[in-house]
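User: I'm putting together notes for a lab meeting next week and I want to include a structural view of one of the chains we've been expressing. I don't have a solved structure, so I'd like a prediction I can at least talk through. The sequence is below, exactly as it appears in our construct file.
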Amino acid sequence: MNYLDFERPIVEVEEKLKELKTYYPHREREIRRLEKRLSKLKTEIFSNLSAWQIAQVARHPHRPYTLDYISRILDDFIELHGDRTFRDDPSIVGGLGKLDGESVMVIGHQKGRSTKEKVFRNFGMPHPEGYRKALRLMKLAERFAMPVITLIDTPGAYPGIGAEERGQAEAIARNLEAMSLLRIPMVSVVIGEGGSGGALAIGMGDRVLMLEYAIYSVISPEGCAAILWKDGTKAELAAEALKMTAKDLLHFGIIDGIVKEPPGGAHRDHDEAARLLKEALKESLDALRGVSGEELIQKRYQKYRSMGRFIDTHGSDTLRDS
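Assistant: Thanks for the context. Below is the predicted structure for the 322-residue chain, given as structure tokens.
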């Protein structure tokens, strides 16, 4: 397990607790005392994280990725490949599965853990063919009246020359257009990093959720710092300014809900993180069940049309919807 700097007090208690359970299991009172202390410590530390610390948790190398959630949440998952135009993009995975007996289409970004897998998955940064594959799967789901679930976890769309030559911006824009007109329910969840158009290209859901320690912004803190201050080391300051945490985005009405994570973050307990996510997905899909396709489109239009606010400088300080 890799530990972040602010997790060190937790690690020390965990190591002591592990030692007690291994070599002195009869010292039950002391074990219970340490377990209570550990639970309290996790709550105290993780309830007071800065935006930059939350960004570090969102990027944690042991955080569960899309396939980790799929294997725990869905039954009978069948992965589908390719955009039918150029190639299969491993940085976006998708396919059919059953969520408590209901057929759903799941699409998500996929990062890698080992060096070889990171390169294979292109660090979770999709090429345009990845977004075209996602669009193909969304259209397939619409044909068979299945809800779509998207799991977002990317630093952003891949900015390489090849990706630009094959129409990266066009692929993202086409997905946005298509998602706005889907006649089926769509639930999007930011499970880690939600970076710019690369995230939004599969994220225009009827319900948009974020895991408790995920981030969602138009640019990474490092990129923002490099542009505003010409200094990438000011990423911590940029993270605060971007208002990229789940609490901030819920306050501004960008997302519809926050999915709780296990104590200490999803990277500490993949099974519990998946259980909590599954509950949130079922709740969101239940709320959308029975809504007609036309009504879904109208509500989706109103949802995204109402985002963003301006201040009337002509005699009024009242915030008004744009």
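A couple of points you could mention at the meeting. The first strand starts at residue 75 and ends at 79. The two ends are 46 Å apart (CA to CA).

User: Perfect, that's what I needed.
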